[in-house]
Design a protein that fits this description.
Length: about 240
C-alpha cells in the first residue's frame, strides 16, 4: 500500500467518506486507481486507517474506511519561527520541516525580511504533501505571518527558544541542547531563524533578553536561512526530540 492521503474528516470503521474534487482527481486521473483499490488515510487525530475506493465518478470518489493500521502519535512540541524567504525556498522549508517533525510553522516578519506576504494555504498544502510522503500521522499547523516583536510579546511562558544567532557568540548548539536535555524533560520549544542578512541589532537584543532564550551557534560557516532551519531542527531532534 504505497498511497497515503490526508483527509479532513473523522475516521472510524465502516464509515464512507466522499473526497473533494482535487483528491478525487488525484486518485482517479493521476494515480489511475479504480474501485476496489486500497490506500492508507490519516487525519492528524485518529491514527492511520486502511481505506478502499468504493465508488468513482467524473468528479468524485467515495472511500470506505476499514481497519486502523496505526494508533495516533504526536510529534515533539517544536515550533519553527522563521523569516519568510523566496517562494521555492519557502516551499522547501515547509516540506522539509514537516519531514523532520516540526509541529508548528510560524512565519515571522523582521526588519530585513524581503517577502512582504506569505501564502499560508500554499504552506499548508506543502506540509500536507510532505506528511503524506514521510508517513507521519499529523500535519504541522501553520500560523499567520506575525511581526517579531508581537510574537515575542505574546510568547507562551513555558516554551523555550533556541535562538540561532549568526554572530557565533552563542554556545555550540549540540552542547547547549545536550545541557538542556540533562536538566529536565524537553517540554515545548521553538527554533528562531532569521532572514537573509540576519536579525538587526535591535532584534537580536530583544530576542536575547527574553527569559526563555537559549542562544546557540550553528557553526563557523554562514548558512542560508533554509539550511540553518534544517540544521537546527536536526540538532534539536537528536538531543531533545524523537530520534
Amino acid at each position: 500500500m504505497s498511497i497515503r492521503l490526508y483527509i479532513d474528516a473523522p475516521l472510524e470503521p465502516f464509515k464512507t467518506i466522499p473526497l473533494p474534487k482535487d483528491q478525487s482527481h488525484y486518485l482517479v486521473n493521476v494515480m489511475r486507481l479504480n474501485v476496489g483499490a486500497d490506500l492508507a488515510v490519516f487525519n492528524g487525530q485518529d491514527g492511520e486507517w486502511n481505506a478502499t475506493i468504493a465508488e468513482t465518478g467524473k468528479r468524485h470518489v467515495l472511500l470506505a474506511i476499514g481497519e486502523r493500521l496505526k494508533e495516533h502519535k504526536e510529534e515533539p512540541d517544536l515550533w519553527l519561527a522563521f523569516a519568510p524567504i523566496k517562494k521555492a525556498r519557502l516551499d522547501f522549508i515547509a516540506q522539509k520541516a514537516t519531514e523532520l517533525g516540526i509541529s508548528r510553522l510560524v512565519p515571522m516578519m523582521t526588519r530585513r525580511t524581503i517577502v512582504d506576504r506569505v501564502k499560508t494555504d500554499r504552506m499548508i498544502a506543502n506540509a500536507i504533501e510532505a506528511a503524506e510522503q514521510c508517513e507521519r500521522l499529523t500535519v504541522p499547523t501553520v500560523a499567520d505571518a506575525i511581526k517579531l516583536d508581537k510574537l515575542l510579546e505574546n510568547w507562551p511562558h513555558d516554551r523555550r527558544i533556541m535562538f540561532c544567532d549568526e554572530d557565533l557568540s552563542g554556545q555550540p548548539a549540540q552542547m547547549a541542547l545536550a545541557e538542556a536535555a540533562s536538566k529536565a524533560s524537553p517540554g515545548p520549544w521553538a527554533i528562531l531563524i532569521g532572514p537573509e542578512g540576519g536579525f538587526d541589532d535591535h532584534e537580536r537584543t530583544l530576542i536575547r533578553s527574553h527569559p526563555n532564550c537559549t542562544v546557540v551557534s550553528l557553526g563557523p560557516r554562514v548558512l542560508r536561512a533554509d539550511t540553518a532551519a534544517m540544521a537546527a531542527i536536526s540538532l534539536w531532534q537528536s538531543a531533545l526530540g524523537d530520534w
